[in-house]
Write a structure and sequence with these properties.
Blueprint lengths: L2 H4 L3 H8 L1 H10 L2 H23 L38 H37 L1 H15 L3 H10 L5 H12 L1 H14 L3 H8 L4 H20 L1 H16 L11 H8 L8 H34 L1
Length: 303
């Protein structure tokens, strides 16, 4: 085999390396993606800067202002607390935005951990095959048999929940799907001519895996993983509602809603406002994730 023939597929490979940019460009043409992206950015900016510049601490209590209704409800509202206050006089807007900050932190970090761990396991299983593939896939099957939320509740129920521990537990529970997707992609990619050419030229397995295959197959999968950010935010909120999430006085969606359920009849906004923020955030993320998935399917169908 000549050197020219060995690298006959390199132009196509370079074209495939631009697939993430093509997926982004295709997704951005969608009105749903642009709307979701704009809403998401506004929410992130509000979560980062409003508690900082408003001067209102989300944990500061003011009993004289307790159960103040939002500005659009009743006659006793205050512009100091546009979304009202809770049973201890804490500002609901500031608490909801700080809760959004922690929810996004846990959702994004957990998804990154799931993708990284699943990609590595799937990469080794798909590339080496044989007993390595058998062992790793049986481990994946065993993990898939354990429901994520049940595993998280079991582990966090016997330990003190912290942000790192929540991220670690959810990340370790959610990697198998990515391992299977990565394994399938790597097995398909390993059969191509440019991989065989690299082997003939003496490239090591590590070099082939981490410089040729992984940069090609990981970015499209990571873009579609945006949908899992929303799923992890829901899990974090469920854990917080059950008392197994980030512990008070740190405000999160789950523990705010849990506190507010006692006041649904006379102060419904305590539980409703963080729920509204959560729904809007999840909707914006789902719009972006669905657009990425449609763009990925369209581009891979044309490749």
């Amino acid at each position: 085999m000549t050197r020219a023939n060995t690298y006959s597929d390199i132009p196509e490979t370079r074209k495939e390396l631009s697939i993430p940019a093509r997926i982004w460009s295709e997704a951005f043409r969608s009105q749903e993606f642009r709307f979701g992206f704009a809403v998401f950015i506004l929410l992130v900016l509000a979560a980062v800067f409003y508690p900082m510049f408003s001067g209102i601490e989300p944990t500061k209590m003011n009993i004289s202002a307790k159960l103040t209704p939002p500005v659009f409800v009743g006659e006793e509202w205050s512009w100091m607390h546009p979304l009202g206050t809770d049973q201890l006089g804490r500002d609901m807007l500031s608490r909801s935005l700080v809760g959004l900050r922690y929810s996004l932190l846990i959702g994004v970090s957990t998804t990154v951990l799931m993708v990284a761990l699943g990609a590595l396991i799937g990469l080794f299983a798909g590339y080496f095959g044989g007993w390595v593939d058998t062992v790793l896939m049986r481990l994946t099957d065993a993990q898939l048999s354990l429901p994520m939320i049940i595993l998280a509740i079991t582990i966090l129920g016997v330990s003190r929940p912290t942000i790192p521990s929540i991220i670690l537990v959810l990340g370790l529970a959610g990697w198998p799907v990515y391992a299977r997707v990565m394994r399938s992609s790597v097995m398909s990619e390993r059969k191509k001519e440019y991989i065989r050419g690299a082997m003939v030229l003496g490239a090591t397995d590590w070099r082939i895996m981490f410089t040729l295959i992984l940069p090609l197959v990981l970015p499209p999968m990571a873009l579609v993983a945006v949908l899992d950010i929303a799923r992890m935010m829901i899990f974090e909120s469920v854990l917080g509602f059950l008392g197994l999430g980030v512990q008070p006085p740190t405000p999160t969606f789950g523990n705010i809603i849990a506190d507010g359920r006692k006041y649904l009849l006379n102060a419904w906004w305590i539980a409703t406002m963080p729920g509204v923020f959560l729904v809007v955030t999840l909707t914006s993320i789902n719009l972006m994730g669905a657009a990425f998935e449609r763009a990925r399917n369209k581009i891979y169908g044309g490749v």
